[in-house]
Amino acid sequence: MAIKELNPTTPARRQMTIDTKDDITKEVPEKKLTVGLRKTSGRNNYGRITSRFRGGGHKRLYRIIDFKRDKKNIPAIVEAIEYDPNRSARIALLKYKDGEKRYIIAPLGLNVGSKVISADEAEIEPGNAMLIKNIPVGTVIHNVELIPGKGGQIARSAGSFAQIMGKEGNYAIVKLSSNEIRKINVNCLATIGQVGNLDHENIVIGSAGRSRWLGRKPRTRVIVMNPVDHPMGGGEGKSKSGEHPRSPTGVKAKGFKTRDKKRYSDKFMILRRNQKGGQLWGLQKRGHILMKSY
Questions:
Q1: What is the Cα–Cα distance from 198 to 194, expressed in whole angstroms?
Q2: pLDDT > 90: what percent of the chain?
Q3: What is the pLDDT of residue 148?
Q4: Are 156 and 177 in contact (CB under 8 A)?
Q5: Which of 35, 53, 155, 156 would be 217's cystine partner, CB 3.0–4.6 Å?
Q6: What contacts 164, CB < 8 A, 6 or more positions away?
């Protein structure tokens, strides 16, 4: 993928950059692997807005992605690298030996003609899916399961990855791209490599209309709203009306932790993403086995 800067023919285009999509080898998606996608515009089944500032956007077809990689021990060849409007990463069209086709998230280094396989144990090559217990410590992975057989939930967007830092008992210690360190069952499936399309984060939208194509509506500053619309609205001039920052439903926005204190996944977290890295020495003290680099 390459980033192209546009000529400043208009004020909007002065800073705008676009994706050249030079890594795309097929433009029309596989018909049997697509379904219609209905827009919700941020509304629930009652028609009430539950996620603000969403709506509109270009019409899309949803590509059915194989996150589970449950077609075991059957080799496949990458037939095409395609663009997916529903995600930041590229997708790869696989054609298995028995003729079946499936989409997977395209990792860095996966090209047309590459061979991939999903098995309990396989070669450490980009695109191969295998159990974490059979992946060496230090390997970069993506599309990681949290529950065996459920399908990949972690590290699926462009450029994201996780790294196996160590193993102890039935759990592997995995460092996520957010710097969070957590335990994951070694019987979970993960795919080798880092998700491709690394330059996605460097794209500059440039214009308001381009954001609307993506389904993003303008976000109004709460300070200019009326008191009926937001707790921080109202007052003369730039007045905060004496209110602490909070959401329209009254939930405090600063210094108030919204995570459930009894959340079951807390026991799998070793280091939260907002904790300092200097606390890593405590992991060794508590008996966690990490890579030598730590």
A1: 9
A2: 74
A3: 95
A4: no
A5: 53
A6: 132, 135, 136, 137, 138, 139, 141, 172, 173, 174
Q: Are the C-beta atoms of residues 60 and 85 closer than 8 Å to each other?
A: yes
Evaluate if residue 85 carries a pLDDT over 90. Answer: yes
User: What are the structural domains, with CATH classification, of the chain?
Assistant: 24-196+260-285 (2.40.50.140)
B/e letters for 129-160, b = 16+ CB within 10 Å, e = fewer, are bbbbeebeeeebbbbbbeeeeeebebbbebbb
The answer to whether residue 280 scores a pLDDT higher than 90 is no
Within the chain, what is the greatest distance between any pair of CA atoms?
Answer: 70
Q: How far apart are CA 230 and CA 210, in angstroms?
A: 27
Q: How far apart are CA 172 and CA 180, in angstroms?
A: 14
Cβ neighbours of 175 (radius 10 Å): 20
| 89: exposed, middle or buried (Cβ count in 10 Å: 0-12, 13-18, 19+) | buried
The tokens of 34 are what? Answer: 């697509």
Euclidean distance between CA atoms 251 and 230, whole angstroms? 11
Cα 207 versus chain centre, distance? 24
Position 252, amino acid = K
Residues 6+ apart with CB under 8 A from 256: none
What would the pLDDT profile of 178-214 be if each residue is shown by its tens digit? 999 999 999 999 999 999 999 999 999 999 999 999 9
Q: How confident is the model at residue 57 (pLDDT cuts 50, 70, 90)?
A: very high
Average pLDDT over residues 261-284: 76
